[in-house]
Amino acid sequence: MTNSYYRDGKKKVDFVPYKGEKMDTCATIHDEYVCCNVKVLKSVSNCPFDCSYCFLQNYLTNPQLEVVDDITRLMQEIEIKTTAQPWRFFRIGTWELGDSLALEEQTGQAKQLIEHFKDIPNAVLELKTKSNVVDPILDCVHHQKTVVSWSMNTPFIIDTEEHKTASFDERITAIKKVVDAGYLVGLHFDPMILYSDWKQDYLKCLDACRNVLPPEHVAWISIGSLRFNPEQKRLIENNFRGSDITCQEMVKGSDNKMRYVKPMRIQMYQHMMANIRRLWGENAFVYLCMERWDIWDKVMDIQPRSIGELDFMFADYFHTTFPTINPQIPNIDLYKKYQST
Ligand code: SF4
User: Fold this and answer.
1) For position 101, what pLDDT does the model report?
2) 190 lines ligand 1 (CB under 6 A)
3) Which residues pair with 94 in a beta bridge?
4) Residue 310 near ligand 1, beta carbon < 6 Å
5) Domain parsing of the chain, residue ranges
6) What is the mean pLDDT of residues 230-235?
7) Ligand 1 center–CA 195 separation, angstroms
8) Domain spanning 3-337 has what CATH number?
9) What is the pTM of this model?
10) Residue 183: its pLDDT value, please?
């Protein structure tokens, strides 16, 4: 998608009717990786922000920024699907094709979803954002059935690669606000991006997050590193002439995505893991995004052997740590048997 075509679609929001199924499994799920089996609700398509590494520039065939305006139909689909698998603890995010909160002042969509999710017995909603638009949801009745998540990065990466998003300090202030409003929070240090001061900057980033996020408000923390497929590399270089994120040594994985070489990724993840454990303790649920078993074995203190097992671990963690959110004892056999659904 060329520079102007891609960006023109971001300028104006179109409200569109509900058409076809909107809930699905995260598109990056792949049998050769330890994926978490998160579900996605495609209620938003495209994003007002302009991150250099954004996969949407290569993924969307229609660049128009669209929001589904029929919450009743969206919720009917979610209720049918969550009722059909009552044994499963669903995590459902609205972020796959855009940002969950960036447009909230115009759409009010997140607020309506929060109010519905509070009554679904076996699901939590994940609102993932790079914005600081949280004021519209602070007064919602949520019963902690919504996790407000931030894609966090260092101030340097935010300033140079995540164009038009909230600044680092604005995101930290927003985290504090939702914690004070009683929400659980997710942090996604993803994509970690290499540059000369990465090590000390990611450490400062973790410290600042910990200052506003106590362990008892952490839903989950994920870590991942920059990845893109070969076609996207050319788009990044065309659309973001000032960016040098494609210049590091990378290798192609069996999912056709380029990543930093394995020893480098291991070093990055070990740095994060050691400091996440130091800051949030042994109990915080931490996982890697789109990595294989061998990396998990070197970096993580949990080692799920399948997608079903990692999905089960989320359910079990919530049942143990937040029993009012997931009161049901999860059955690992069902998570393994139906891991592809
Ligand atoms: S916030 Fe997410 S969806 Fe929006 S431009 Fe950045 S990477 Fe893409």
Assistant:
1) 98
2) no
3) none
4) no
5) 3-337
6) 92
7) 20
8) 3.80.30.30
9) 0.96
10) 98
